Structures are given as structure tokens and as C-alpha cells.
Amino acid sequence: MMEQDNKPYETVPPARDETTHAAPAGLEAHGGAPETAPQGRRTLDIWPPIEAIDEVETGHIWPAVRQFPPEAAPGPAWPEAPVAAEIAEPAAEAWGARHEAVASEPAWPDVAAEAPVEAPVAEPVAEAWGARHEAVASKPSWPDVAAEAPVEAPVAEPVAEAWGARHEAVASEPVWPDVAAETSVEAEIAEPVAEVWGARREAVASEPAWPDAAAEAPMVAVEARQEVEALGAEPAGPDVVAEAPVVAAELRESAAPVWVAAEAGARPLVIPPLPAPLPGVAGLAPAEPWRLAAPDIRPVSMPEPEAASEEAPEMALDGGAEEPAQAPEAEPRDAGAYLSALGTALRPAFSAMVARIPKLTYAVLCTPDGFNVCSTGVSNEQIGKMAAVSSSLLAVGEALVNAATGQTELDVLTMESQGVQIVSTRVSGGGHSVILLICARTPLGVILVNAKSAVPELRARMETVA
Amino acid sequence: MDIVVGQRVAPQVIFAGPMGVGKTTAMRAVSGPEKLEMDVRSLEANQEMRAHGKTTTTAGFDYGECSLPDGRSVVLYGLPGQERFELMWNMLTPGSAGIVLWVFGDRADGGEICAAWLRALARRHACTRLVVAVSRLALAQRDEGVRAFAALARHFHPHAAVLAADPRAPEDVMQTLAAVLSAPAARFLAG
Prior knowledge:
The structure holds 2 protein chains of 2 kinds.
Chain A: H1 2-6, H2 40-45, H3 48-52, H4 55-61, H5 63-66, H6 81-104, H7 111-114, H8 119-137, H9 145-172, H10 178-196, H11 198-205, H12 220-231, H13 240-254, H14 332-356, E1 360-366, E2 372-376, H15 383-405, E3 412-417, E4 420-429, E5 432-440, H16 444-462
Antiparallel strand pairs in A: 1-2, 1-5, 3-4, 4-5
Chain B: E1 12-16, H1 23-30, E2 39-41, H2 47-51, E3 56-58, E4 62-67, E5 73-78, H3 86-92, E6 98-104, H4 110-124, E7 127-135, H5 142-154, E8 161-164, H6 170-182, E9 186-187
Parallel strand pairs in B: 1-5, 1-6, 6-7, 7-8
Antiparallel strand pairs in B: 2-3, 4-5, 7-9
Helix pairs in contact in B: 1-6, 4-5
């Protein structure tokens, strides 16, 4: 995401009449040049006059608009300032004489009244420019379009520089920058661990590929790692480092006091010796049997290794249908029946609520653990994910509130993204709890009012569910 | 109010694994008071789990901090175990210094579950340290179980370490942390 955001636009200069630099014909009737340069999706959203222009005319008079579709130009708005100047300048020139005349007038907007002939042109212009005109008219120097457009560049430049430095720093980092650094630091941990691997080291020393392991014991871990890394996936000798915990478990069982053994020249231990046989640790007699363990322990069956492939196969955890589920056995029938009953009970109130919210994008009712109860505006493929994300979102929000204030529940969570408002809240009643999430391109207050008005009815219906 | 600028950066270790294996328990075993838990009541907890007190599941993520015996701090993140929360997996796993994958050692399908998780992690990680912590291994099956999981793990990660551990035991959890931070980093294999 960051990469996408950091990527400057591939800006395409707006097509314009190079001979006259005149504003495209017809543009005046729709309010002239935009206040700012097109800025991807936002510009298209806040530029209703363009929508009024028919397709042919749009393509003819303002091809620049076509150069900034949201899909073609995702990214931040800051690099657009120079483009804004290019767009604004011809428009400003076209408006030039008009602006000067207007600037000389003491009271704006009186254009329509004082220039009847120009009224058909001036009125839509005045409407389109609206607040912009008022702000500009209040300034001593008009026209400001051309003057202000270049100002955006100085503003954008330091931002671009700041981003530039960040980009360079990020670009200069390796894919895994801390590997080398951490390896040396962790040697302090690895070495004493290596000391513990006495038996293993002896085995290693007996093998021709690693003849000096015993003699070089203090550095076994470091050198073994380097050796293994140098050889890639084919370690020359036994993978001492990776197998260490296995060996350590064996040693722990023997309770040999090798944990504190330090050979001459070895660095001091930085982790304490492993404790004596631990209760409950696998491999040792558990002091307390694991209570969830099945009474008849079944042998672990390992899947047959799959043939190596260039690409990782689709995983069950990523949606592969044929792969085994990773979760323990659940009770889908009970959970499904519960979700169905809850959804059926809440549907009338949910439907009434979404009908009252204009420009609704989607709405989700889900359980706190991420199961869909009732939703609209969400595709079948997205239902599960939207419910899970909604529950995670509120869980994270509640954890934040709890950490900050000690309160356990979050009343309302709101977010905004380019005019799209997202509201989430928890509704509890009758021993049930659901999370309501609404997303709409509507003023926040409208969503809040409708959501809060729906809560009592949702709560009442939840109390009817067994 | 005092203004605190910056933060001491500590390596992040991810606790991953299927639901109910003990990730949150392991976090609690070693985390200090800074921990955050986002547990909610679970519809999935089966009868056996509920009978033994497992009634919740992690909806967001678990967060904890602990100090290693050498004084270093480690930041712990516990992933939710269900696939539907993969958004959290995608968010949290790429920045981790190492992963501790907790797996069931007492289930017949434990290997399948472990393989599925390894595939999922392989898809999200180009390079990291990996420790597979096998819980609930019966005494008689400990060696065989650990070796079997080790063979499986090596199929996905050349330097994966495998050890038996009890998530309830702080010593065991600390051992997994020491192991994961001392293990060499390597790229996941395609599996």
C-alpha cells in the first residue's frame, strides 16, 4: 500500500490549444477551470460540472479529465501541483480579462446584474465557483487563479522532498535488513545454546563435513549458521542450530548439568540454564495432564510431502477447498442455527435501518467473533471476510479504549475515507451481542442518527432469540 | 504531561497456530502488564473446549511484551487462529523477526493442521525464523512426534526448529522465544 501511495502520478499534461492557450470551448458554461488540478478520485468526485458535460464534449474539450481516472492514477495528491498549474494557467488566461473586470468591481457577485449580456455565461460560472469566488473576491488582488496555482508547487515540493528522503531510505534497505545485524547480536544467545548441545556436537565432530566442531565448540553456533547460510538449503553437516531445541529437549530429560558448562574462551551465558524438568512439558511426566487432551491419544499422522513446486500451492488457510481446515472441530450446525435464528430475528430492524440511510455502501451485522448475522451490499465471497474484519476492527478499538480509559466497551467507532463514512457499534441484548457496521457516502450525523435509532429495535428483537 | 519521544525497538515474535492450541495462554504466561487481549466469546469452541474453560477466541490480536533473561525485550503478537481473520495475519506477520507456530501434538490431524499453517506462513513470509512448538505431546510419543514435526517443518523452512512445549509453562514459552531468536533466518520453501 505504501508503495502504491508513494508512487507519483504518471501525469499527462492536459490537452489544450497550444496556439491560443484558451480555455476549452464550453468550459465556461460549466464553471471554467477547476479550482485545483484533477486529483484522481477526489477531483472527479468534487467536480460535478464535468458530469454534466456529455461524453463527446468531455472527450473533446477536456481530455485531461480522462487522463486521471481513479484506476489509472492511484496515489497521493501532492505530486499534482505542477499539473495543477498547467491546467490552471490556460484557464486563468481565458478568464483573465473577465477577472480583471470583476476585480475592479467593488461588489462581487454583481456580474449577472451589471452585465446582462454576459449573464448567461456568468451565472453558471458564479454558481460553479461559489465559495471560491467569495474567498478570492475578498482578497485584494484578483485574479488569483494563476497566482495561486503555482503556489501549490512550493507547498508540494517540500512534501515531495520529505517523501523523497523517506523513499530513498526505504529503497536502500535490503529485503531483510536486520538479518545480518541481528545474527551477530544473537550470537550471544546462540553460543551458550551451542554449549548445551554437547552430545550433538560430538556427533557433528565425528562427521567428516564438520570435523572441528568439538574443538570449536564456543563458535559452533555462529560458524554453523554461517556455513549453513552459505550453503543455502543444503547444509554440509547436521543443522546444528536448527536441531538444537530437539537436542536440548533430550538433554533436559537427562537433567545433565550441561546448561552452565562453559568452555575456555566461551562467552558468558546470556540466557540462564534451562530449568529442571518442567511439569507439563512434553516428553516428561506431566505434573498435570493437559485437560483438553483426548483420553485416547492417537498417533500423529504426517502428511506426505508434496512435490516441490515453483510456487506455493493454494493453501487451505487461504481458501483452498480441498485442504484441511486448520481449526479444531467446531459445531457448525449449532453455530449455523444460532446465526440463522439471530439473523432472521434481526432482519426486519436491519432492513428498516438500511432503508433510511441514503447512499449506503454496505452494512454488516456480525457476531463479536466474526460470523455474519445479517448484511447487505456485500458480495457472497466477501461476507465472511467483512464479518471478520468488522469484529476485528471493534476488538482493536475496544482494546485501545480499554488501555486508555479502562472501559471495556467501545460505544461508537467512526472512520472516514474520502467522503465515505464508516460507523461501528456494539448492540447487546438478551444475552446476545452483535456488531453493527455501516458504510455509506452520507454525512456522519445521518448514519449515527439512524444507527442509534435502530439499536433499541435490534436489542428488543435480540431478546426474542433463545 | 510528560512527552515521550521515540521508542526502544524490540524484535517482534508472532505466535501463530490453530484455534485453541494455546497461543493466548502462552502470551499470558510470559507477558508483563502491558499485554492486550482481544478475546471474545466463541461460537466455535466445541463442547470439549467449553468443558475445560475454552470459551473465547481472539478476534483482533494479542499483544504482549516480555524480557528475555539477557535483558532484551521482545514484543509478542498472537494471531487469531481462524482463517477468516487472515487480514490480521497479513498485517502482523511481515514485520516479525520470528514466528512460533504452536501446533497440536495430540491430534491425529495435527500434522495436516501444521502443514496448512506452514503453507499459509510460507505465502506471507519471504524470510524469517521459525520454531514449531508442539504442545500436548504424550510422553511416549515425544521423540517420535517432535521428529515427525521436524521433518514436516523442514519441508517448508530449511532451518525450522521444533520443540515440545507447554504453553502454560512460562519456562517453556521462554524457551521457544530463545529458540526462535537464536535460530537462523531463512526463506520459506515452496513446500
